[in-house]
């Protein structure tokens, strides 16, 4: 690759686990900052705003602000502004992420009349809000011709007491019932990486993506022409690595080894 000009970094499993910094991660990000290398933290998280994530990471010592963080909701807002401008959107999400949906017109339900026009149904992360009434309301809007945009298709996420069911478990039912296909905006969608690159003004061939999910972070970024770096922390499992549909350009024991890789790449590309 050419000289590294920008780095995209997944948060959970790369910089932190349960919001606690992984060993050496703070120091490694400080070195990127000191070198003046543009970076963005990219996450499918739908339960927190960029400001809240930035606050949490800053508390843990990471040199970041809200502008350095791109969440699936923030990327979805950019996608909606570009592909569905001025659309009236119905949001179904667990957690209040409205402040990250800049420029998106949200139709408030259930206050609105049930037949109120909705152009796009936007599905975020699952939670107790995904009850029968809410899902049926979404189904009715889809039947009436509303488009379906989903922030991701994750099947579950890890909580302190086990795995919890996520959006990917509900989405196929809605798609089949309403005979529509969701436009997915979060990782591993190309739209996600394209928006992140545009945010940094970066060229894919000069960008690294560092993640612990070989498919959603690494192989998906490589499909967009980005150099994929897998870390052996977070959800990394040797068997998932072996069975993956692609091969990372680089594999690191942890994010702490990234400055070393960057040095190596800058000497080898002259
Ligand atoms: Mg991760």
UniProtKB/TrEMBL annotation:
Keywords: Hydrolase. InterPro entries: HAD-like_sf, HAD-SF_hydro_IIA, HAD_sf. One of its GO terms (molecular function) is hydrolase activity. NCBIfam families: HAD-SF-IIA. This is HAD-IIA family hydrolase. It comes from Streptomyces rectiviolaceus. The lineage of its organism: Bacteria, Bacillati, Actinomycetota, Actinomycetes, Kitasatosporales.
């Amino acid at each position: 690759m050419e000289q590294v000009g920008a780095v995209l970094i997944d948060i959970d499993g790369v910089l932190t686990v349960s919001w606690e910094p992984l060993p050496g991660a703070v120091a490694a990000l400080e070195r990127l900052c000191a070198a003046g290398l543009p970076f963005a933290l990219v996450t499918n998280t739908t339960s927190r705003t960029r400001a809240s994530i930035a606050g949490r990471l800053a508390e843990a010592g990471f040199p970041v602000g809200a502008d350095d963080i791109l969440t699936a909701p923030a990327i979805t807002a950019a996608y909606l502004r570009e592909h569905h401008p001025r659309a009236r959107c119905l949001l179904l999400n667990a957690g209040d992420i409205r402040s990250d949906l800049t420029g998106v017109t949200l139709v408030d339900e259930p206050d609105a009349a049930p037949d109120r026009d909705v152009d796009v149904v936007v599905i975020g992360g699952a939670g107790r809000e995904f009850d029968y009434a809410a899902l049926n309301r979404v189904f009715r809007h889809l039947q009436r011709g509303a488009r379906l945009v989903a922030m991701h298709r994750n099947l579950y996420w890890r909580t302190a007491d086990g795995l919890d069911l996520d959006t990917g478990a509900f989405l196929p039912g809605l798609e089949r019932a309403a005979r529509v296909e969701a436009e997915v905006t979060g990782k591993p969608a190309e739209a996600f990486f394209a928006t992140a690159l545009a945010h940094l003004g970066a060229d894919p061939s000069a960008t690294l993506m560092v993640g612990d999910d070989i498919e959603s972070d690494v192989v998906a970024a490589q499909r967009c022409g980005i150099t994929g770096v897998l870390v052996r922390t977070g959800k990394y499992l040797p068997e998932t690595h072996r069975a993956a549909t692609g091969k990372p350009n680089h594999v690191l024991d942890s994010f702490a080894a990234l400055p070393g890789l960057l040095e190596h790449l800058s000497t080898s590309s002259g």
